[in-house]
Write a structure and sequence with these properties.
The complex is a heterodimer of chains A (961) and B (482). Chain A has 961 residues and is of the alpha/beta class. Chain A is built from 37 helices and 19 strands. In chain A, strand 18 and strand 19 form a beta hairpin. In chain A, helix 7 packs across helix 10, helix 13 packs across helix 14 and helix 16 crosses helix 17. The longest helix of chain B is centred in the first third of the chain and has 22 residues. In chain B, strand 17 and strand 18 form a beta hairpin. The radius of gyration of chain B is 37 Å and the shape is globular. Chain B is mainly β. Chain B has 4 helices and 37 strands. The chains are: A alpha/beta (961), B mainly beta (482).
Chain lengths: 961, 482
Amino acid sequence: MTVTALLVSHDGVRWLPAVLGGLAQQTRAPDRIVVVDTGSTDGSHKVLRSGLGADDVVAAGDVSFPAAVAAGLEHVARTSPAGTSEEDPDWLWLLHDDSAPAPGALEALLDAARENRSASILGPKLREWPSLRHLLEIGVTISGTGHRETGLERGEYDQGQHDHRRQVLAVNTAGMLVKRSVLEELGGFDPRLPLFGNDIDFGWRAARAGHRCLVVPEAVVFHVEAAQHGLRRTRLSGRRPRRSQRRAALYTLLVGCSALVLPVQVVRLLLGSLVRALGFLLVRAPREAWDELAALASTYARPDRIVAGRLRRRRTARVRPGQVRHLLPPVWLPYRHGLDFVADLMLAVVHQAGDLSARRAARTASSEAGAPETGPVPAEAQNLPADTGLLARLVGSPAALTFVVLCLAALVCARGLYGRGSLSGGALLPAPSSALDWWRLYLESWHHVGVGSGAPAAPYVLPLAVLGTVLLAKAWLLIDLLFFFVLPLAAFGAYRLLLELTGARLPSLWGAVAYGLVPVLCGAVGQGRLGTVAAAVILPWAGKAALRLSLGFSTDRRWRAAWRTALLVALLAAFAPLGWFIAVAVAVVGVVAALVRSPRAWSRPSAWGPVLACCAAVPVLLLPWSWQATVHDGLVAWLFEAGLPAPGITVSPSAAALALGRLGDLAAAPGWLSVGVVAAAVAALARRDTRAKVLPAWAVLVVALGTMALLAGHQFAPRGHVTAQPVWWGLPLLVASGAAVCAATVSGTDIVSRISGASFGWRQPLAVLVVVAALLSPVAGVVWWLVTGVQGPLDRSAADPVPTYMNEAAQSSPTHGVLLIEGSRADGFQYRVLRGGGFRLGDDSVLPTAQADRPMTRLVGDLATGPDPSDVTALARHGVRFIYLPPPADPRLAGNLDSLSGLNFASAVRRGSRAWQVDATPSAAALATPSGSWRPLLLGVEALAVLVVAVLAVPSRRQRR
Amino acid sequence: MSTEPMSGEPSNGDKQQRPRRRAVVRRRFRPSGSAVAAVVVLLLGVAAVLVAGARQPVPAEPPSAHGQPVTDVLAACQPGSHRARILTGSLPDPALGSTGSLAVRDLSSGARKSVPLQRGRLTTLQPSDGVTALEATGPVAAGHFGMLVDPASGALAASPCVEPRSTWWFTGAGATLDHTSRLVIANVDPGPAVVDVRVLGESGPVSTIGTRGITIAPGAVRTIALTDIAPQGSDLSIQVQASRGRVAAAVSDSFASAPGAAAGKEWLPDQGAASRVVRIAATPSGSRHETLLLANPTQLNALVGLRIEGKDGEFRPVQHAQIQVPPGSTRAVDISDAVQKQTGALLLHSRVPVLASLRSVSDGDLVYAGTVRPLEGAAAAAWGGGVHAKLLLTAGALPATATVAAFDESGDQLGTDQLQLAAGSTTSWKPPGRAEYLTVTPGHGAVYGSVLLSGPGSAEIRLDSPPVTLQRPVVQPGYSSP
């Protein structure tokens, strides 16, 4: 039995002395040591020559591992021809320059070979070097997804728990003892696997050729895995060892699997790789995702290599693929790993939350420990466990207590809105029956609304769909929560922002409540202004993210803040598109101001780059709406918030009302309730030491007010409306109010000591007056809301506007529409065609254009003036099944319809209403037809943009070596 | 003022020799950059608020209704005797189109025929036993009118052909031996109609049986004798209300002024709806009996004031200064003394809406004068040959003018006149003898009119403006409200 140790070396001078030492210390020394150096440039050659002599050191040039082994084998064959016999075979012991064998390794392997004559390949137990205790491998196999399965936990210590010999698919080439004849018979290692994965491929081929591979735990080899961990960069490992590994795994699977499984495997690997890439993106590892995709592309781009590889393996195969199946892991194993990963992730999150809580408790304890002793503590009290209960924490935290009180107050204030049905009224349409309808609305390119519309669904439908799905598809619940709890929700965001801004808890709490009251006091809640209500919740978070754009933070944090801000501003603009314009204006003002103050710092692209990226990303994130709406409706589309424009309740406020944060009288609180906040914001400019922080807030305030001044006096016709109407200034008011609150809160920090420490003069009582008024203002606002509750047109619609049977018929087919006509001859008629579930929240954004409505408008005009039977045919061609006049039905119109041949009376349940059924079979002949749309493509771009920006916004992942 | 320099440290020696004196330091006010910025942003904010508050948008002009030429007119003419004739035509206005056709449908037999219709030319049709439906289509339908004139056995009766609608009121019907009425309800539309009939008697609403939810099939006519549903009621008011569809209703009345006297026949003039101010067409002079028939369909007591607008102006009869009409009832008041056999319109005022008509009995025939409305455009009335006509025009509260013209059957104008109408007075105009129809075009001021027919009896036709244009209401997509 002759054993030749074949050591492959490449720039391994760091480890070679130990490797050679290990070889020298073997209890059963190899008969010969041959070294193949693959063009080392670090002096390895010298070390090898000095250690082993020049004869058995083969300089193979910069070649791959398979080529190096082949060269070594050729050298061995040339210098010592094989004495091949089954009884006494020649063995090759393969070693890497970063793998050091334990002294008894070879002896243990040979003993095992002697005891298992049928084993052709034997491998040692690999331990991590330099820790020497962690297990790396005790035999390997490959899963169906290409994962290298070792059967070990990560970082598992070697305690002899796996010490039993067993047959495996493959063993690592570091320490592999293989019969020379087998290696020659199988043609060595596959040159297509230059560095990674050739051991598994070789083992698989050997198994198919009928050879056994045995792992021998008594033999121990310590392995650095230098190439895998990137400790050694070679031409073969490339700069991206992960990509090479993945490519090798894909290749191995595709050439190794059976012909029957191959088509499934091709699809599985394709989809699996895409999912893995997505997963990498989600954990913000774009390089790994790119590696995954690049490996997939490079492998799938050369099917000829796969075919050639399979043909080669077919020539050496002796047993059926099924006979080696037991050496491969079960099919479900990768998925169990996935579940384990998710479970680990959740555990980590829980533990991190626990750690945070513990750290907070420790901080509190240490701060309390710093307080002076107030007297002796009874021994019993000292032994009591610390009370960390919810109630104790609630009582002990003014912020938590305040938000709980605000939530309870919100429930009380919504007392008039409880009941069945969906909230609606004013600018709010009732929510659809399911949040899935929002998904449908958002994803579809064509909408059966009115006469049919290809308008893009507004971007706010997407967050509603996502949140509604989380709430078990209960769309009404989402709207209820938003409108009922807008005060605490908005206040919480504002609290986090103000805390970041000031670091002072109590002033932040005051500012949070003052800000949270804005949508309530200005009447947005009572008027059903979904856009303003949602924007009130989102705005503070966008502001908080934008704070990190200042130069005081590292570049990485600023870029992350930019993407986070872009996401939040996009979310804000989804509900109130004007938000993007305001954000851009604020960014321009901010950058210009910064350039004036420190031109050198801000003239660098790295300084203004994040701000620019943040602004530019928003329209991309709002695709497809931002593109399609701008193309079709122009910039007017960006002026109207989520929900109906509601011209009847939208008025232009007076200057006094505006100064006090009111946009009209409907559902709004008296203006004097906000005098304190306004006074505090103005007075904030007077305090010198905080002025530097107050001025930016005032700049934002001026931008918001300037937006209103620009919009003042103008009217615009939104989509689906014929007449121009004023724009609701909900968002500019929110921004202005938020900025005013920020200014007041910043200047209110430490205000008590500041006033009490000031010398007496006229300023002191004035300051006291402003502070008292400011403090009382939010309290008065909450009390007002508690007393009045939610006022205005917002209500809970109990019934559909049309009889139930019509509603059901409309849901059965898009051509069974219900033409609902309201009004009178004197005041004019308004009509709408209800299809599906009726006119629901989200449909307001996909209304047909006035031009598309024109034929239907003319038809209704004919019905109201002098109808003839051809009008009935036209109704049927417009997909109208029923005509319904809600009470009070106009008598002349009813008479006209009564006299019309082809209309039959239908049941109108409500007193004073009238209904008819169209005799002719309704069709969609006269409806607008869907045309080709770019929407699917733009939706894809949007999804990609959201994904990329979200990945870029999350904290950077520490690269694992 | 100190003459010491403000700057310069005093020596220690000075400090010891002289008491310390506080230097007067004049600090010049130098605003910091942040203070300037604060003032600027404050001013900008105030300016923005003022601009935003001052610039109020100009309210958009709401779209208004607009007219379009009438191209389709459907009217129902009541049945008549074998001597009756239907006179139909279109206003002789050359500005209106003259193409089109007239479809004549006999509802009793279902027969349908098309007859030529020329603008300005009078077409005479023979009515059937049942209701005749006229349907004019095309531009010639603009200004289309029709009359039924029935000179049957010495009692001239006339009735305009009416468009179907949902509400009808008739005042002056009866269900006694000397005074009988028949209600004729026709459905000329292709869909079924459902009507309710309500009767108001002298003592209040009359309990009727089987008058609710009467279904009238398309093209069907329903005739109801008042004696069947409200027997023994001498003066009744009838409401026909269609809850589904539209109908054309009329009431044929037969009235004998005295027991055993010959009964005069007439169609009751229809009244659209109750009103607080009711004007009744001028009545023929020389009538023996003038009975004012008042109906109060409300739940409140009505006190009705009466004024007569005669040839010489308006006066208030003292004995009928206020007439009380109990709620839900009909009241007949003899005002023969007040009218004093002169031609004049009646003007009624009440605090609750009332309905009214005037029954005049003269020479064995009766004439009903109904509520008149101010003319909105050119009006026409036809009578055909063998009957004499007299136009009675009354001005409203202000003086008015009107242009009258008379035409023969072929549409040739025989005479025209410009009438000046004094406020609150009635003026009569007699067309030339060969004239078969006339037109009245109001000038300025409100003009009310009727045409008094005489021949083998008397009849009166209210002047109405046939529709020339239709007001097309404003229609908009109604997506603004949920």
